[in-house]
Amino acid sequence: MIASLVDQLVGLFSPGRQLERLAARATLDQIAAVSNGKGGYAAGKYNRLTNSFERLLLPENQIPRAQLDQCEAESWNLYRNNPYARKIVRTIETKVIGRGMHPNSQAKGIDGKPHVEFRKAARKLWWALHNCCDVRGKPGRGGLDLVEQQKLALRTCILSGEALVRRKTLSRAKQQALGSPIRLALQMIAPRRLSQFTKADGFEAGHDFYRGIELNQDGERVAYHITSQRLDEFNLLAYDDVARVDADQIYHLYVQDDVDQLRGVPWLAPAILQTHSTGDYQYNVLKSAAIAACVALGYRLSRSKTQFGLNGTDNDAGELIDDDGNKITRMKAGMMINLGQDGDLKGFTPNQPTTNAEAFIQHMLRGVGTAMPGVKASTITGDYRNSSFSSERSADNDCWPEMEGVQDWFASGFLQPFYEEVIRLGVAAGYFAGIVTPEEFADREPEFLDTNWSGPVPRSINPKDDDEAASMRIAGGRSSPQIENAAIGRDSGDVQQDIIEWIAECKANGLPEWYIAASLGQKPAAPAQPQQGQANAEQANSTA
């Protein structure tokens, strides 16, 4: 109705303009009739229910960098100041990394059978790097061990959206200082050090440049342009010079949510607003409780008084003083107030509204927990009062496939390529001498580098029943000791080696066989029963 009146008003001054408006309005009506017709997707139609939807579809690579920087800053701010956010990050670290993800070599010989010696040597080499694979130094001297480096890389991915790990070749002197068996170490690089606009020397003509990443014509990563880090005169970090680092030296770890995505997004991004709202609500509840503890007073002077005074004050028009002559600036307990002939004094208590704050905070945290893989609201709060052990463990098992997916992603994107480089350098350095020759390794490299990774596993609700079920699966030919050991986070090779060492130690100490069998969970053999004739003879002898 209003639109038609406006069109008529326009027609009074410009009939041509009125016709243009009518034609445009007819076109819009036709589009609305087609898009809002029956069938199809209701959310894709333009009507009163959807006219507020954001219809701008942006690929991840086209999202403004300022938005991602803001999300990164807010993620780190929440991690530093919000206990719920810190608990989320620590929970993911614990379930994915725990005490470290470790390789289980699946190397096979030329006959297709397990190459036991190579597997043992590979595991020994990996553990030898535990405390000497950080270019900054050994643990306690500026560096981190391999497990803490894994946690740092994952934490950086959660809060910054991505992690950069550089593989560096050590000098002989640095190798000896670290005590490393090979000339290889890792350097963690903060994602913010990627140069957004400035290209380093060596940038090849015809290549593309996207927020610090150099791409060739096929869209393949060629190099990373990284700013140097130093302390300025105010002891603040400054980033200035840009260096070009070949892409084959960088492990770029991030979750790719979109096709062709080149940079990562903080994992906390979808939970930032709700986490902030939870903190704001909790702050408001605390403030309202503090205000409710206060008391406000109001008074009305008597007609015979010009000054609010005490009982017994001779000069009602004078200053407000106590019995000792001190000026009164606030009310005190036990005060007697002279209200005069018709004065009045009233108190007001701003009581807090009766709201169930705890239930609403729990509701908000459930939404935050669903945004993060493998995280429950009860885990964030640590409140298990309304749940049982079995229900919590069942919930853990329900969300554990998400954790396994994160473990596989982390191992394939960071640990596996690093492990392969460790084995290659170990073979070149003669670490596997007498086990495999460099020529044999080069001919069958994929078979020697085959491995799987073990890390934290879900806990059992009833360990006894699970152990019995595992024994039945092995006895029925439906499983193997290796599979069952892996299911509980154990390496079958380590278990076998521990048993061998235990038996040898018991025999060296002169312990009997029945004790060794009992210590390994075996029932001792029953003593042999004598024959019937022998038993009768022994009984007769004893009687005589």
Q: Could you name the key traits of this structure?
A:
extended, three-stranded antiparallel beta sheet, 13 strands, alpha+beta, single chain, four-stranded antiparallel beta sheet, about 550 residues
Largest sheet, in brief, is: 4 strands, antiparallel
Spatial sequence of strands, sheet with the most strands: 4-5-6-7
Number of strands: 13
Rg over C-alpha atoms, rounded to the nearest angstrom: 37 Å
Low-pLDDT runs of 5+ residues are none
Write down the overall geometry: extended
Beta fraction: 5-15%
Distance between the termini: 128 Å
Overall mean pLDDT stands at 82
Count every helix, treating DSSP H or I runs of 4 or more residues as helices: 18
Please give the oligomerization state of what you see.
single chain
Helix content: 40-55%
By secondary-structure content and strand pairing, the structural class works out as: alpha+beta
Structure description:
Helix content is 45%, strand content 12%. The model has no long low-confidence stretch (mean pLDDT 82). Helix 1 runs antiparallel to helix 2 (15-35), helix 3 packs across helix 4 (83-96) and helix 8 (272-292) packs antiparallel against helix 9 (357-370). The protein has a 4-stranded antiparallel β-sheet with strand order 4-5-6-7, with no helix packed on it. Strands 3-2-8 form a 3-stranded antiparallel β-sheet. Among the domains are: 2-55, no CATH class; 63-69 and 120-267, no CATH class; 295-348, no CATH class. The chain has helices at residues 2-13, 15-35, 65-81, 83-96, 116-128, 146-160, 172-178, 272-292, 357-370, 377-381, 389-428, 438-443, 445-449, 463-475, 481-487, 492-508, 513-519, 532-543, and strands at residues 102-105, 162-169, 184-189, 208-210, 213-215, 221-231, 237-246, 250-254, 296-300, 309-310, 337-338, 344-348, 451-454. The protein is of the alpha+beta class. It is built from 18 helices and 13 strands.
